[in-house]
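Entry 14. Structure prediction run on the chain below.
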Amino acid sequence: MIITTKGIVLKIIKYGDTSIICNIFTELLGLQTYLVKGVRSEKKQSRKGNILRPGNILDLQVYHQNDKNLQYIKEYRLDYFFETIGENVIKNTLLLFAVEVLSSLVQTADAQEDLFEFATGFLHKIDKASSDSLTNMPVFFLKEAAKKMGYAIDDNYSATNCYLNTYEGCFQSRPGESLPVFDRELSHQCYLLIRETAFENIAAIKVPALDRTAILEGYLHFVQWHDKSFKPLKSLPVLQAILH
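Output returned:
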């Protein structure tokens, strides 16, 4: 059957002399793998393959068979043209970070429409945002995306429960005994970030660079502890360097 859906390109693998295999997180079909023929040839029409890049949001018409692991695309075009991400190092690295997070979180063909809507909206917003407003966005994207897949740190911070435990995913009355250990101040900074759910408000929260790094690594530890398929992120060192 032919299905019309939107999708975020996650990964491209060269196949043969002229084709590619493309992993796409689709709105209606979850994670799908497509064989796209001829897009690496010298022919003029192969230039369309340039839009099949990680992070691009596409309008798709696809041939879909439930019993097949490899599907085919009938038609595709850009759903949204990024105006600034391609030429902005901070935004482009943040886009690649988001793609890596999605690649680890989305592992099946089950539709994840809430996550898809959040992810596309996030990419639209960072494209239009100023670069100096993006320092907290890695933590924001990770926590919101993970929450939509069922992984969320409990919002139970209080004067008594003021130490974050990334193993249990909650705040407790004393520091944890295993790394990473969050002291009272770092736990409070983390709480300020994780309680905020609006893109427009997260940038106003002032967190020192070293604390941002520790919070992001701590949240990654929480997600990886609870989702063993979540892979280390190659974009993380670059992202931390440019946002420091």
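The chain has two domains: 2-78, 85-243.
Filed with the rest of this week's runs.
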